[in-house]
Write a structure and sequence with these properties.
There is one protein chain. Helix 1 runs parallel beside helix 3. This protein has about 260 residues and is mostly helical. The longest helix is centred in the middle third of the chain and has 19 residues. It contains 15 helices and no strands. Helices cover about 65% and strands about 0% of the residues.
Length: about 260
């Protein structure tokens, strides 16, 4: 078989070729973004060929057509190159961008909208809600994984306290894992612990009481919740709930405790 290799384009050649393909695909409506998008492309690509330019612009067009609302092309360009890192773990990638943004740091160094727009691209929702959805999903996922490292990262987002309460109140989290994770968060002196933690603990107690206990053992998380309850009436209800659940569980053996 004959193998054809396409040599990299010279600087002036590839820029002209890029601009022509860009305008052909996007018209004049995205002219303001052209220089920035071209810079992002150059910073990520070491060897520039006509094929790479065409593939890149085609991906931009495809992403642009599937968005609920317009997104500046610079963020779509960033996603083209960072999508593997972002999709594998959206929350960690979006809120801790060092792994992929360092190559284009000159473009996004002081850009505070990057996280919102990347979340919008991942979940295809309105920008104002995108990062909130990312935080909510990440809280829920972390609770089922019991991921102690994920929660401190999420606390850096301004909507974390609200999304944490929403996730707990809606019954979406694994309550025992979340209890352990929040206890660890409170003990972490470097973490940004929400001021609303008393309310969070109360909501978590109610969420736990709405869930049946299937394991015939006293989970350490229950002891944590008992210590966090400040209302005597709620404490009585919670202890009653535990007794009733354990009585229903045929595998529970009181002599072990």
């Amino acid at each position: 078989p004959v193998v054809l290799s396409v040599p990299p384009l010279l600087s002036s050649e590839w820029q002209d070729f890029f601009d022509n393909k860009y305008k052909l695909a996007l018209g004049d409506t995205e002219e303001e973004e052209r220089h920035t998008v071209r810079l992002i492309f150059r910073l990520y690509e070491q060897k520039i060929t006509p094929r790479k330019i065409i593939v890149f612009i085609n991906e931009l067009v495809a992403l642009r057509l599937t968005r609920m609302e317009p997104i500046p092309l610079r963020y779509l360009a960033l996603f083209v190159y960072a999508k593997e890192a972002i999709i594998s773990n959206p929350a960690r990638a979006i809120f801790s961008k060092d792994s992929y943004i360092k190559q284009v740091n000159t473009v996004f160094e002081r850009d505070e909208k990057v996280s919102d727009y990347l979340a919008d691209i991942v979940y295809n929702v309105k920008v104002k809600k995108a990062s909130q959805i990312t935080v909510y999903k990440a809280i829920v996922d972390a609770s089922y994984k019991g991921d102690l490292e994920e929660l401190p990262l999420l606390t850096l987002h301004p909507d974390f306290p609200t999304m944490l309460l929403d996730a707990i109140s809606s019954g979406a989290v694994n309550t025992t894992h979340m209890t352990t994770m929040l206890q660890s968060l409170e003990n972490d002196q470097t973490a940004a612990v929400p001021a609303s933690m008393p309310l969070v603990w109360e909501k978590l107690v109610y969420a736990q009481m709405a869930a049946p206990i299937y394991l015939g053992e006293f989970d350490p998380a229950f002891a944590i919740l008992i210590k966090k309850i400040t209302d005597k009436g709620l404490l009585l209800y919670f202890v009653k709930y535990l007794i009733e659940q354990f009585q229903k569980d045929q595998e529970f053996k009181g002599k072990t405790y």
